[in-house]
Structures are given as C-alpha cells and as structure tokens.
Amino acid sequence: MPTPDRRQFSPSAARNRDPILAVLQRVLPGAGLVLELGSGTGEHAVHFARHLSALRWQPSDADPAALASIADWVAHAALPNLRLPLCFDLADTPWPVAAADAIVAINVLHYSPWDTTPALFAGAAAVLPEGGVVVCYGPYRRGGAHTAPSNADFDQWLRSVDPRFAVRDLEAVDAEAQRCGFVLEEVVDMPANNFSLVFRRGGGGGVRA
What we know:
Layout: H1 11-27, E1 32-37, H2 43-51, E2 55-58, E3 60-61, H3 64-77, E4 86-87, E5 102-106, H4 116-127, E6 133-138, E7 140-141, H5 149-161, E8 168-169, H6 170-179, E9 182-190, E10 194-201
Helix pairs in contact: 1-2
C-alpha cells in the first residue's frame, strides 16, 4: 500500500512566496543557517530553500499536522540544503537550535498568543550572532489603527478563532524587539496589506519604511 501524501497546500502561500522571497534575497546573509519558525504547510520552506541554495534552511512547527506536511514536502523536494522540521514551541526555552544566522517568521505573530512575540525575540537573541536578521511577515496595525478594512475584518476573525490571536501593533512588536537588542531596520510594504519587518541584532540606524 502506498504511503499517503500528507502535504498540505495553502493558496496564500503560493501567492505571497515570491514577494517574500524578494525581501529574503536582499536581507538574508549569503550563507549560513536560517531557522524558519512556524513553517506551516512547508511550502515556503521548499520555495526558499530552492531559490537560496547557499543557505541551509531549517523549518519548524509545534503542530503535528503541520510537521507531517513539512516532512513530506521536504522528502518530495529532496533539496540538499533543506532539513527535516524541528518540533518545538518557540516559547519553550532553550530552543533546539543552538545557533543560527537568520530567523524567518511568516504569519506567526498574529496566529499566536501575545507572549509569543517577546519569546521570539528573546530566543532570537540567544541564537543569532551580532548583525543577525529576524524577518517577520504579516499584517500589522500602525499608529494604533488597521492599515486596511480587510485587516480589521481579519483581526475580528482571528479573535473569533482564539481570543489570544490578533493583528499586532507594529510599535508593540518593535518595543519587544528593542528590549532584546534588535533594531527595526526596515518596514517593507507587501501585497494584500501585509508588511515584512526586518530586525537586526545590534543594528545601527533607524527604520526605513
């Protein structure tokens, strides 16, 4: 009997992977290990590992169904620089990765309790070198307001799924990053009213929007 294919497919992942890749190609280091937090279906991991072949890509998730999907995507892609997923909740310390060169978190912060945000930057500070990059992609409120009516609707839907979920205030995320020694280097406008936030550990200069 053939082994069932556990790969999941996300239409939004297919839509946003190339715009996100364009940001990653510009801000990630030329070589090293990238830890992807909350890898979801695993489609992003495959796409990015395929196009960033000089980087080793380490996907991760805490959800068993996501981990199964990621593992099957990894096996199907058979890329030499793409690792099997790690199972961990990023709020649990220490992380199972002792050192990384960059961290990518796509659609993680709004699908998590708020405590995940400070945990992410505390964990990142423990594993990244000076100058290491954290990229957080998703919708964010700015100046205390949603940037589009669709984001306000999405925020309501998130809270109906789990009261701990919400579209986060960019300024609050930045404050947690600063507390852990990160500087918000860039706010990149993305399609569908999303943003890529580029943080650098110990980075100089201010935000570029």
